[in-house]
Amino acid sequence: MKGLASGVGLMAFILCSSLLVYSFPQSALAFILFESSLLLIYYVPTPGKIKLFLSSLVLVILMPFLGSLNGYYLEVAIQVGIYVALALGLNIVVGLAGLLNLGFVAFFAIGAYLWAIFGSPQANEFIPGSLFPLSPWWFFVFLPLSIFVGAFTGALLGLPVLRLRGDYLAIVTLGFAEVIRSLVNNLDKPINFTNGPRGITPIEKPPLFFQPVLEFFGFGASPASLYPFYFYFVVLFLVAMIIVVTRRLDNSSIGRAWKAIREDEIAAAAMGVPVVRMKLLAFAVGASFASAVGVVFAAKQVFINPESFTFMESIGVLAMVILGGMGSIPGTVLGATVVTVVNLQLLKGLSLWLNSLRQSGIILTLPFLGTFDLSQIPAQFEPAKYERMVFGLVLILMMIYRPQGILPPRRGEAKSDGAP
Amino acid sequence: MALLRIQHVTKRFGGLLALDRVDLVLEQGMIASLIGPNGAGKTTLFHILTGIYRPDEGEVCFEERSLVGLTPDQITASGIGRTFQNIRLFGQMSALDNVLVGMHSRIEHGFWDILFRRVGFNDGEREAQIQALELIRLVGLQGREREWAHHLSYGEQRRLEVARALASRPKLLLLDEPTAGMNTSESRALMSLLKELLGKYVQTILLIEHNMRVVMGVSDQVTVLDYGEKIAEGSPDQVRENQRVIEAYLGRAQWGVRASG
User: Fold this and answer.
1) Which residues of B touch A272 (CB under 8 A)?
2) Taking the model in full, what pTM does it have?
3) How far apart are the CA of B88 and the nearest CA of chain A, in angstroms?
4) Rounded distance, CA A305 to CA A109, Å?
5) For B48, which residue in chain A has the nearest alpha carbon?
6) How far, CA to CA in Å, does B78 sit from each of A170, B52, B189?
7) Greater confidence, A218 or B255?
8) At a CB cut-off of 8 Å and minimum separation 6, what does A132 contact?
9) To the nearest whole angstrom, how far is the Cα of B187 from the nearest Cα of chain A?
10) Residues 6+ apart with CB under 8 A from B22
């Protein structure tokens, strides 16, 4: 009964915040309020079925609807999804198995370039005949293919570095990511595989197979306006799959073995955990997630170049995992969401606000201090320019006051909860 | 048939001879103790038995099969469980999960079974949990199974290590100083636990122990190491009387003063 009441309350909150976004489609704050309804759904104790219903209501119906009012929201949601998927992949390696990987973005790059090369005319450079770009339908072949390619490269990287621990492992993975980036940057000669720093474009998007259906029902829309929704659902599906896979692995002997290795490798081995195999598996699973997301990223961006896969990206994803709570799925999702939303909406919103103040020409008269012309605010004050500093500070504060992250894994989670 | 046969095992660390041609035979159904002053090579021998170290020379046979060159997890799967001198639990995992990790080699689900929750997965997990809870009850930690291991008290952690080691259903249980840091009543409880385990949960127990009350109270066979060399072996009474053992522990008698054990 109590659960039902809180369910109704949640519903009211969701509807109010969506109404707010509906009335003020340009307000970033209203949208953040709407996004936080998902967090509330997680926190408020209600039966799992109500939670599932409410969160799918928000994600499947309300989010695309509000996105149709302000296209930027959908863009934010897609970015959030991409980073959530990446962070969940890294969470398996760092959070569960305890293997510090500073080069996670390499697998993201591998997936992205996999589709970029074959989903654009680029492959004609080294494969005779003009077979490329492949038809958009191949996107759905490359998505599962990238999972295997990612898993394979992940295991390949894992093999030589398995004997390393802690700092040494971190350095080698960092080096691996730089190797991949340099390769991509320089493999434009003697044979042009990657087109080097100029990047690859145009990359095919997945096919709009449902467009005829929509037209049949009288929703004729241009592909350009349909794609954001399309990518939103592709990313949503991918994230849902990744969460299901992670949860299933986590609540099993594999997840327990990973955590045991994280806690004490020698003891884990002495308890019968095949340490080498389990580490390879962690590397492979994490890499396969990143690589699959890379394919979607390449298709969404249409253009990719090595600049998208720098060391700072790896660090950013790691920061999301640490911020949210290593080893915890809700924590990782939250960490990735908060970092991306703060980046794309809050800081940018504040910068815009500062700009509008500057251009307003208002002259403040402050008591005792004289007058201050707002147009004199230096451009260096824009919060968006302090993105790295803000996160550095947040991370330092977290390490001092809450080192386990915002939502650390719960105790006694051994209780298997059956479904996904 | 001997369960474990160690022959001429030698281990060097640089110039240090940690084990010098040590022989040891454990028969089924016995509790054996390994004693000796600090640095005698007892823990090194354990590490060799469990595959953490590889002997430089010699042979280790368990049920007539050689263990040399096997990895620690393979050795555990073949039937040897152990605890550690300095407790090595998985701190940020629940007590129950600690024991479940110990069952890893017995759980037969592969990656795809787990991913697709194939038939038998849920039953297997439930069965594993029931067994794990039984072991937790056996060592007297019932009600504490959801607690994180590093939140347990010292004595509880020692007992949880025993439960975790039993989870792989070992035939041979190796205990490295199980009563270290325990008071008299706690070590007495542990002694009766060991006697209860024998035959029911494990076939043979080998313990490293400094507490002579425990050693003399439970052991069928005592082996004494000193500077990597086996200096005595036999029943507790025989070892107690042995001149070399007394010298190793108390020093050589000088100026005509006899050290009496």
Assistant:
1) 72-73, 76-77, 102-106, 168
2) 0.89
3) 6
4) 9
5) A270
6) 34, 15, 29
7) A218
8) A118, A119, A120, A121, A122, A123, A124
9) 23
10) B6, B8, B9, B10, B41, B45, B58, B225, B228, B229, B230
CA-based nearest distance A92→chain B, Å: 15
Distance between CA A13 and CA A58 in Å, rounded?
A: 11
d(CA A310, CA B209): 55
Q: Is B179 exposed, middle or buried (0-12, 13-18, 19+ CB in 10 A)?
A: buried
Q: What distance in Å separates residue B57's CA from the closest CA in chain A?
A: 22
Please name the residue that has the structure tokens 């990511």. A177
Residues A252, B109: C-beta atoms closer than 8 Å: yes
Nearest to B111 among A254, A411, A418 (CB): A254
3-class SS at B247? Answer: helix
* CA nearest to A275, candidates A265, A284, A287: A265
> How much is the CA Rg of chain B, to the nearest whole Å?
20
B71, A252: Cβ pair inside 8 Å?
Answer: no
- CB-CB neighbors (< 8 A) of A414 in chain B: 94, 96-97, 100, 129, 146
Chain A residues whose beta carbon lies within 8 Å of the beta carbon of residue B146: 411-412, 414
Position A302, amino acid: V
Stated length of chain A: 420
pLDDT at A415 over 60: no
CB B52 to CB A272 under 8 A? no
Tell me how far CA of residue A237 lies from CA of A78, A104, A172, A232, A233, in angstroms. 11, 22, 33, 9, 6
Average pLDDT per block of 10 residues along chain B, 261 residues long: 91 92 93 91 93 93 92 93 93 94 88 88 92 94 92 91 94 92 88 90 93 90 93 91 86 58 41
- Whether B37 contacts B249, CB under 8 Å: yes
Largest Cα span, chain B: 77
Q: Residue B93: which residues within 8 A CB-CB, separation 6 or more?
A: A256, A259, A260, A263, B101, B148, B149
Q: What pLDDT does B80 receive?
A: 95
Cβ distance B88 to A281 less than 8 Å, yes or no, reads no
Which one of B73, B141, B160 makes the best mutation probe of the A interface by having the most chain A beta carbons within 10 Å? B73
Question: For the range A408-411, what are the long-range contacts, defined as Cβ-Cβ under 8 Å and sequence gap of 24 or more?
Answer: A408/A325, A408/A326, A408/A327, A408/A328, A408/A331, A409/A325, A409/A327, A409/A328, A409/A331, A410/A328, A411/B94, A411/B146, A411/B147, A411/B148
